Amino acid sequence: MNGYKDIIKAAISDFGRNKIRTFLTSLGITIGVLAVVLLIALGLGIKNYIKQQFESLGANLITVLPGSGFGQGFGAGLINNTKFDEKDIKALEKINELKYVVPVFFKATSVEANNKKEFAYIRGVNEDFFKLRNVKTLVGKQFNSSDNQSKAKVAVLGYSIAEKLFESPENALEKTVRIEKQRFKVIGVSEKKGNSEEDLSIVVPFRSTYGAINPDKTFWGINLGVESEKDIQVAKKKVKDTLLKRYDEDKFTVSEQAEILSTINQIFNVLNIVLVAIGSISLIVGGVGIMNIMYASVTERIKEIGIRRAIGATEKDILVQFMAESVLLSAFGGIMGLLIAIGIVVIVRPFFPLSINLIAVIVAVGVSSFIGIFFGVFPARRAAKLSPIEAIRYE
After folding, report:
1. Which of 11, 195, 225, 379 is deepest in the core (most CB within 10 A)?
2. Which of 201, 371, 228 is closest to 286 using CA atoms?
3. Is 74 within the bounds of a domain?
4. Which is it for the CA torsion 79, 81, 85, 89, positive or negative?
5. How many helices, marked H, and strands, marked E, lie in the chain?
6. 195 SS3 class
7. Is a pLDDT exceeding 50 seen at residue 358?
8. Are residue 202 and residue 242 in the same domain, yes or no?
9. In what helix (H) or strand (E) does residue 123 lie, and over which residues does it extend?
10. Full residue range of the structural domain in which residue 293 is found
11. 240 within some domain
12. Which DSSP category does 340 fall into?
């Protein structure tokens, strides 16, 4: 052989003799790489989506949750029996660094209106909720402090729940919705957020939930807002000191936006590893397919191998030739899988923030090439070890 160019030309020439087999052999690697890249893109997309939702809340948000909250297991925190009440709200309102103090009552339930019954999230909050969470109305208005003090039965609907109940946001104004047998008048509909929880929410004054909806007069959590990012650490300490007067340290968690996002990123890093491991199964299956085809190719070309050995080709030449064919098949499949994945990401990206990073590209091309080498070495060694005389005599 006269160098790698000749080896590659010979490999491509052999592929051309059996195009269908070449395509089917590469297809396994193509599907495997496609699966791995799309799963990585999905993991990154989910992380990007959650990050966007958090960023939309504003950088200067502090959250008070029951139990360990996000810090040591979100589920464990929610199971905790700690519940906040208006005493906590009044105490926190005395902290100078806090611009907004928003109690949050949250409940998933069914809502009835216009002879329809739909699933929705009920949020009992105060008037500062709209400013803190950057919620704007598409039509109508938001409730104010007087509505909360008087326990007015008024509601601001999320965009999606307004559409489901009344066909359009405009139709929802001045209509009545029934929540837990209580009637609320719709005074506004919020702009579409693109978040199902936000868009399916019905926001009402927290004191209006007292009774059938919130008989304990307690809150699931508390959202706090500061004027400047530099005030966050001071505010957090004061909030914690204030709550420690009523609760043990393990009964609540005070978290800032960055801490929650960091915890979520750690979760998704583990999730990405799991997703890649699942997708890698397809790559292994594709590699086994290449090994089987290369073994078959060695058997078909035994006489050709014998002739090449007879005219001077060494064991190394034969080994390199078959290894090159295996690697080229894998690399071709890997590149095809990567291109298809990029195409899918480009199509889906306007609707969901899928993302392909450098790691995904390296995994796609690198792993597919490695599989070609790993699974190609066994049939290549078998071809290289054939005796020239026996190979020429082979029928």
Report:
1. 379
2. 371
3. no
4. negative
5. 15, 10
6. coil
7. yes
8. yes
9. strand 116-125
10. 4-52+264-393
11. yes
12. H
- Do 26 and 149 lie in one domain? The reply is no
Which residue has tokens 């047998």?
181
pLDDT digits (tens, 9 = 90+) for 73-94: 444 444 456 789 999 999 999 9
CA angle 79, 80, 86 (to 5 degrees): 120
What amino acid occupies position 190?
S
If asked whether residues 36 and 104 sit together in one domain, one would say no
pLDDT for 334-344, tens place per residue?
Answer: 888 888 988 99
The SS3 of residue 395 is coil
Q: Please give the angle made by the CA atoms of 285, 286 and 291, to the nearest 5 degrees.
A: 95
- Does residue 142 contact residue 188 with C-beta atoms inside 8 Å? yes
Q: Read off the DSSP letter of residue 83.
A: -
Distance in angstroms (rounded) separating the CA atoms of residues 102 and 88: 11
C-alpha 170: how far from chain center: 34
* 173 and 203, same domain (yes or no): yes
At 198, which helix (H) or strand (E)? helix 196-199
Region for residue 284 given its phi and psi (left: phi exceeds 0; alpha: psi -120 to 50; beta: otherwise) = alpha
Q: How many CB atoms lie within 10 A of CB 189?
A: 25
The string of pLDDT tens digits covering residues 218-244 is 998 999 988 877 888 899 999 999 999
